[in-house]
Amino acid sequence: MRMLSSGASRDLAEWTAPVVIDVISGAYGARLAERPQDARAISLAHFRIWRHLLAGECELAMAQREGLRALTQEAGLEEDVLLEADREVLLEVIQCVLTRFQRSPQIACGYTLALVDAASSLAQERAAA
């Protein structure tokens, strides 16, 4: 049973957006310091996927995943870089949810379930690849 309405999922995507883009930009910026335009393009593509995941739009997110994979390959990045960026985003957003909603366990639980859905979609996509 999903504990978040679509509005609450969109809210999660909205307030976590600065955190997500910061983590993703850092992940690709460090690896592509000599090519900031490539880092920016990959970061934006990856951010869009996470925005969809957090908004509960997992099918849209997965539809865009192949384009992200192509961008990272063109930039000479291994698949592990993409997966590590996903892990970093997931951990950072979980920490934000737990900190921000420590006095509202029901809300924290709902947001955490949305993150479990996102992680599950990524795992299914990875298994299918």
Provide keyphrases for this structure.
single chain, 129 residues, mainly alpha, 0% strand
| Average of per-residue pLDDT values | 90
Shape: globular
Helix content: over 70%
Q: How is the biggest beta sheet arranged?
A: none
Give, in order, the helices and strands: HHHHH
Unreliable stretches covering 5 or more consecutive residues: none
Distance between the termini: 28 Å
* Integer-rounded radius of gyration: 15 Å
Number of helices: 5
Q: Which quaternary structure do these chains form? A: single chain
Specify the structural class: mainly alpha
Descriptive account of the structure:
The chain has about 130 residues and is an all-alpha fold. It has one domain. About 85% of the residues lie in helices and about 0% in strands. Helix 1 packs antiparallel against helix 2, helix 2 packs antiparallel against helix 3 and helix 4 packs antiparallel against helix 5.
Topology:
Blueprint lengths: L5 H26 L4 H19 L3 H17 L4 H22 L4 H24 L1
Can you give me a brief rundown of this structure?
The chain has 129 residues and is mainly α. The protein has helices at 6-31, 36-54, 58-74, 79-100, 105-128.
